[in-house]
Amino acid sequence: MTFQPFLEAIGKQVDNTTYGANPIELYEPIQYIMSLGGKRLRPLLTTLSAHLFTDDWHKTLKPAVAVEVFHNFTLMHDDIMDCAPLRRGKPTVHEKWNANTAILSGDVMLVNAYELLLDVEPACLPKVIKRFNRTAAEVCEGQQFDMNFETRTDVSQEEYIEMIRLKTSVLLGFAMELGGIIAGADDATTQALYDAGVSMGLGFQLKDDLLDVYGDPEKFGKQVGGDIIANKKTFMLIEALLLAEGETKEQLHYWLTQEQGTYDTATKVAAVTDIYTQLGIDKIAEAKANAYFAHGFEVLQNLPVAETRKKPLLDFAEFLVGRES
Amino acid sequence: MTFQPFLEAIGKQVDNTTYGANPIELYEPIQYIMSLGGKRLRPLLTTLSAHLFTDDWHKTLKPAVAVEVFHNFTLMHDDIMDCAPLRRGKPTVHEKWNANTAILSGDVMLVNAYELLLDVEPACLPKVIKRFNRTAAEVCEGQQFDMNFETRTDVSQEEYIEMIRLKTSVLLGFAMELGGIIAGADDATTQALYDAGVSMGLGFQLKDDLLDVYGDPEKFGKQVGGDIIANKKTFMLIEALLLAEGETKEQLHYWLTQEQGTYDTATKVAAVTDIYTQLGIDKIAEAKANAYFAHGFEVLQNLPVAETRKKPLLDFAEFLVGRES
């Protein structure tokens, strides 16, 4: 994997990052959540994007970790809001400690993200902070839309795509843009990197929704079928509600209206998955995800940069398309 | 009041500040908490500190409001942690909406504070963000110490002072320093402003603790006696525990160990207040607060700035010393 050196450098940078010491109740949860791992997707995108323009991509490591710290801050707070017991197979911060600790540690994590972002040339700091602020606000907006959708039954595909664009994709866009800004790319190029990141982010989330239904439980980190159990209004469910007719439609509505605790979850997951497959939702969702990935690739391929410089980033993008976990 | 024009300009700036529009669930609570008022102490300190060096203090209005937005963000999150039902006599955000909304609106408020801070000359942005980051982390540390103290019985005066320094005073210090930085003051001067702000912040908090016990219920915004009911380990309680002997000591321990709901709160407040007065705690606390204020005044008086430029800031500081609410 041509992106392996980048991943290793990020791993070391994360391990060497300190967030504060005292009081320990505030800082221990930050070390904890950052140590749970994950794909380090966002800092990889930052360093790989910087590498398009410079061999000195190491100088983006601290800002790249800022994006990862921000991402984990959103996970810590989202997990409180979603009452999630597990994160990457380990107890969430509010479960291991308590909700107050998760609120306050998360707050100081957001401040830590800004502190790590300071490690850029002063000349590009205003742009970096401005773009990060916009992105961070949009991620919060996406989370609020996601929560609003829980109690709505009329969420459209456009609304769902806009929600995941805000909640997930803009941060991938910013991660790539940030690498370009620090490496001195011009405005048109950093905008192209942002667009590529957002598009691949949409593909990434749609793929995540697919894996939530069709993933191999041995490989997928989360509970397969979790979205189906929660009636989460994903692209797949919204599409199924549009396409289903007759008995299939009745079956789908039956499962959507059963109260939790009154049915066997494995039966529901199998039944709804079966409906999706009958309706060809898997193929439709895969095609939609691939279209977003393809647009991202196209933008990257059109960048006026030598192919050798692009290779690690394109390799990583291909890895994302083919991932099973 | 020579600081009245500053207060009016801040009021207008707060009224004209927008935080975002959609989704409304995210942004309405921000408008709400910012509209509840308050003394606007922190932005006043920023503008008054800038006025020490320039007539063009209006250019500090947006960053000054950033400090106020940050302060209100901490109130929104602290109120969740403290299960506080009221803020400035109105329902808290987590009561009026819910805890998830208060978490997420607070998060985006912190981002909004950084966005407002961007309205400074690019040359001073790195310093502004660096100092703000440090201050913001310290405020979170102070809140964590405050929560830790709830379950401890051996909090010392030094620990209490350090906790209020972090939770309250450093933000007043930063508010003053920020005004100096934007107005182009040199490092020694901005450091002096910070020190003056921290010192007055300590005086301010000790005065707040005093008013919590001895304030006029008609004038004091909060419930008089709240700290006594909650057994909050303030400077006053810690001092009383050090000084009380014999029957007074027994009485104090009696009230500290009664379970909430098993006694009449007004009787407890009256009894503990009486013990404080017998022990002269009011005089001791007032002397301590005044010593911190005096140090702050001294630092300000030693600044190499014309007296006329200092007058509004000194007038405001005197207003703080004499406040009854």
Write up this protein:
With 325 residues, chain A is an all-alpha fold. The first copy, chain A, has a single domain (4-303), classed as Farnesyl Diphosphate Synthase (Orthogonal Bundle), CATH 1.10.600. The first copy, chain A, is 73% helix and 1% strand. Chain A contains 15 helices and two strands. Chain A has helices at residues 4-16, 24-35, 41-51, 61-81, 93-96, 99-117, 125-150, 157-182, 187-214, 226-229, 235-243, 246-257, 265-279, 281-301, 307-322, and strands spanning 86-87, 90-91. A two-stranded antiparallel ribbon of chain A has the order 1-2. In chain A, a hairpin with a 2-residue loop joins strand 1 and strand 2. The longest helix of chain A is centred in the middle third of the chain and has 28 residues, at 187-214. The radius of gyration of chain A is 20 Å and the shape is globular. The two termini of chain A are 17 Å apart. The mean pLDDT of chain A is 96. The A-B interface holds A 20, 22-23, 25-26, 77, 80-81, 99-100, 103-104, 106-108, 110-112, 114-115, 118, 122-123, 125-126, 129-130, 133, 136-137, 140-141, 143-145, 147-148 and B 20, 22-23, 25-26, 77, 80-81, 99-100, 103-104, 106-108, 110-112, 114-115, 118, 122-123, 125-126, 129-130, 133, 136-137, 140-141, 143-145, 147-148.
